[in-house]
Write a structure and sequence with these properties.
heterodimer; A: alpha/beta; seven-stranded mixed sheet; 8 helices; 19% strand; globular; B: alpha/beta; Aconitase, domain 3; five-stranded parallel sheet; 14 helices; binds iron/sulfur cluster
Chain lengths: 167, 421
C-alpha cells in the first residue's frame, strides 16, 4: 500500500486536548469530531486539510488522556498517517486500533517542511520526499499492525476473526 | 541474551520462546478490566464487533468506582449499561457499591491480579499490579472490547530500565516518596514506552502497599508498566488470596536493560509534587508556607490499610483547624472495615475528618471534594494536572498519607515528624 499527501507540521508534546478539546467529547460521531480536529493547535487545520495529507510532529505526540476520540478525529478528517519523533503510548495503541498508520522517524521529521509532498510505502516503512529526493527508512509496521490498518482497525479485525463481515 | 520478567511473561503469553524489545506480539490475557468511564464505550465497541459472548466469564472484571455511588443521572446511566452487560453475560467479577472499591486496590485484594499474569485495563493506572509480579498495562476502550471478545491483546514488547534503591528508608519515608522522587529525577516522559523494574535493598524491605503505590505511578513517567519481581511477601499474599491458578515468572540474571539508575535513599526526605506535573517534585522541607484548604487521603495510589494506619498515626490526638477540610476515603470495603476494627476511623473523626465510602471521587475531580478557584489541596493521589481536582484555578500537591495528614493538622505542608504526637 502506498500513501501520498502533503505535510502539516506540528511541534512537541501535542496533547489529546489540543487534538480534540474536551468540549467536543459529548459525541462519538467521527464526522463531527473531524470538524474540530487539531483545533487548539491550528484552528485552520480541519477546514484546509486534504484527504491523504500527513501530520508531521515532534516528540510525545498524543500525550494526555486515553480518549480514543483523538485518533478518530484525525482519521475522520482524512489524514493518511502521522510521522513523529515519538508518540505517547496509549495514543500509539489507539491509532493502530482504529487503523490510522503512524511512524516514528526523527530523521524524516527533521527534513520535512510545511507543504512537502510525502510518499509512504506502508509495507516497507519507506518515507519518500519526491521533490527533495530523500528517502527515510522508518521501522516498518509489523505485519499484524498492517493487517489492522488494511482491515480498517481492531473492530473489523475481531469481526473477521468471529466469522462476521467487515463493517 | 537474557530476558527481563516482562519479556518472559509476554513470550509465554504469545507461545514463543523469547521476544525482543520493539517486537509486536499477540498474547492471551489473564484478565481484562473496565470502569464506569471506559467500560460503557467498550461495551458499544464489543457490540459493533458482533461478539455474542465474552471469551470467559471469570476473566473480565467490571468495577464502577469513579462516580459511584452515582453522583448524577448521567453517571447512573453509565453504570446501568455496565450492570446490564454484566448480568447479560454473567460476568463473575462485577462489583456493586457496598462490595466494591477503587479498581486497582480492589483487584489485588480479590486475588485477581497475580504473579506471572498478563492483565490489561481500560484505565491508565492498571500498571499497579506490576508490584505483584504481573505484566499489567493500561489500554483504550477498543482494546478492552477486543479482549472481552477474544481473550487476546497485542503488545509492543517494551525495553526495560532498572531502578535500584540502596540503603534503608528513614522513618516517614515510603513507596510514595520513592516514586515521586524517581519521577522528579527522570521526568514525565523519562520512561516512555519502557518497563520500569524496581529493585534493591530498600525495595525488598518495603511493604506490599508501598510497592503498589510505586507501580501505580509508573505511568506518570510515561512507562508501559512498573514492576518488581515477586519475592516471599508477594508469593505469600498471592497464595492467601488467589482466585485462580498462576505461575510466577522471573527475569534472567543477564537480562538486558537500556539503562540503570541507582539511588541512595537513606537520607531521603518525604517528597511533594508541586502543581501541575507529577515530576515537579521537592523535598518537604522546601515546601513550607504552602497553605492548604483541603487534604485528601485515599485513591488507588494510597487508600490501602497501611496508608490509613500511617495517617492515623499522625492524626491521633491532633485536630484539624476549623477552616480546613480533611477527607479520608478507604479504597475498598475491606480496607474500610479493617480501619473500623482497628479504631482508625474514630481517630479520623475525632481529628475532624470526613470519612467516605470507597470511591475515586475527588482524585479525578469527580465528586466528594471538588476544589473552588484559588484553592489548594494536598492529596495522596497520583496526578496534579491543571483542574484535576476541580476548578482550573485550583492546585493539587501530591504526597504520602503521612504528609497529607500532618499538613491537614498544621494548615500548611509540613514534615509528619513535626506533628505526630
Ligand atoms: S483513584 Fe484516581 S487514579 Fe485511581 S483509578 Fe480512580 S480516578 Fe483513576
Amino acid at each position: 500500500m502506498i500513501l501520498e499527501g502533503k505535510a502539516w507540521i506540528f511541534g512537541d508534546d501535542i496533547d489529546t486536548d489540543a487534538i480534540i478539546p474536551a468540549r467536543y467529547l459529548n459525541t462519538h460521531d467521527p464526522e463531527e469530531l473531524a470538524r474540530h480536529c487539531m483545533e487548539d493547535a491550528d484552528p485552520e487545520f480541519a477546514s484546509k486539510v486534504s484527504r491523504g495529507d500527513f501530520i508531521v510532529a515532534g516528540k510525545n505526540f498524543g500525550c494526555g488522556s486515553s480518549r480514543e476520540h483523538a485518533p478518530i478525529s484525525i482519521k475522520a478528517a482524512g489524514v493518511g498517517g502521522i510521522i513523529a519523533v515519538s508518540f505517547a503510548r496509549i495514543f500509539f495503541r489507539n491509532a493502530m486500533n482504529i487503523g490510522l498508520p503512524i511512524w516514528e522517524c526523527p530523521e524524516a521529521v527533521q527534513a520535512i517542511q510545511k507543504g512537502d509532498s510525502i510518499k509512504v510505502d506502508v509495507e516497507k516503512g519507506a518515507i519518500e520526499l519526491p521533490q527533495k529526493g530523500y528517502t527515510f527508512q522508518a521501522t516498518p509496521l509489523p505485519e499484524f499492525i498492517q493487517q489492522l490498518i488494511v482491515n480498517g482497525g481492531l473492530v473489523n479485525y475481531v469481526r473477521l476473526k468471529l466469522g462476521k463481515e467487515a463493517l | 541474551m537474557g530476558q527481563t520478567m516482562v519479556q518472559k511473561i509476554l513470550a509465554r503469553g504469545a507461545g514463543k520462546k523469547s521476544v525482543e524489545p520493539g517486537e509486536i506480539v499477540n498474547t492471551k490475557i489473564d484478565l481484562c478490566l473496565g470502569n464506569d468511564i471506559t467500560a460503557p464505550v467498550a461495551i458499544s465497541e464489543f457490540n459493533r464487533m458482533g461478539a455474542e459472548t465474552v471469551f470467559n466469564t471469570s476473566r473480565v472484571a467490571l468495577v464502577p468506582d469513579h462516580f459511584t455511588p452515582n453522583k448524577d443521572i448521567n453517571t447512573a446511566k453509565q453504570v446501568q449499561i455496565m450492570r446490564e452487560f454484566a448480568e447479560k453475560h454473567r460476568i463473575k467479577y462485577y462489583y456493586e457499591i457496598g462490595k466494591m472499591g477503587v479498581e486497582h486496590a480492589l483487584l489485588p485484594e480479590e486475588g485477581l491480579a497475580l504473579p506471572g499474569e498478563i492483565i490489561i485495563g481500560a484505565d491508565s493506572h492498571t500498571c499497579t499490579y506490576g508490584a505483584l509480579g504481573a505484566f499489567a498495562t493500561g489500554v483504550g476502550s477498543t482494546d478492552l472490547a477486543a479482549a472481552m471478545a477474544l481473550g487476546e491483546a497485542w503488545f509492543k514488547v517494551p525495553p526495560a530500565i532498572k531502578f535500584e534503591y540502596n540503603g534503608k528508608l528513614p522513618q516517614w519515608v515510603g513507596g510514595k516518596d520513592l516514586i515521586l522522587y524517581t519521577i522528579g529525577e527522570i521526568g514525565v516522559d523519562g520512561a516512555l514506552y519502557r518497563a520500569m523494574e524496581f529493585s534493591g535493598p530498600a525495595m525488598e524491605e518495603m511493604s506490599l502497599e508501598g510497592r503498589l503505590s510505586m507501580s501505580n505511578m509508573a505511568i506518570e513517567a510515561g512507562a508501559k508498566c512498573g514492576y518488581m519481581e515477586p519475592d516471599g511477601k508477594v508469593l505469600e499474599y498471592a497464595a492467601s488470596r488467589a482466585a485462580r491458578e498462576y505461575e510466577p515468572v522471573y527475569g534472567d540474571r543477564d537480562a538486558e536493560y537500556e539503562n540503570t539508575f541507582r539511588f541512595e535513599v537513606s537520607n531521603l526526605e518525604p517528597q511533594v509534587a508541586f502543581p501541575h506535573k507529577p515530576s515537579n517534585v521537592k523535598p518537604v522541607s522546601k515546601a513550607q508556607e504552602v497553605h492548604i484548604h483541603q487534604s485528601v487521603i485515599g485513591s488507588c495510589t494510597n487508600g490501602r490499610i497501611e496508608d490509613l494506619r500511617q495517617a492515623a498515626g499522625v492524626l491521633r490526638g491532633n485536630k484539624v483547624p476549623p477552616s480546613l477540610r480533611l477527607i479520608v476515603i478507604p479504597a475498598t470495603q475491606e480496607v474500610y472495615s479493617q480501619a473500623l476494627k482497628e479504631g482508625l476511623l474514630e481517630i479520623f473523626m475525632e481529628a475532624g475528618a470526613a470519612v467516605s465510602t470507597p470511591t475515586c471521587g475527588p482524585c479525578l475531580g469527580g465528586h466528594m471534594g471538588i476544589l473552588a478557584p484559588g484553592e489548594k489541596a494536598v492529596a495522596t493521589t497520583n496526578r496534579n494536572f491543571v483542574g484535576r481536582m476541580g476548578d482550573p484555578q485550583s492546585e493539587v500537591y501530591l504526597s504520602s498519607p503521612a504528609v497529607a495528614a500532618a499538613s491537614a493538622v498544621a494548615g500548611y505542608i509540613i514534615h509528619p515528624g513535626e506533628v505526630a504526637k
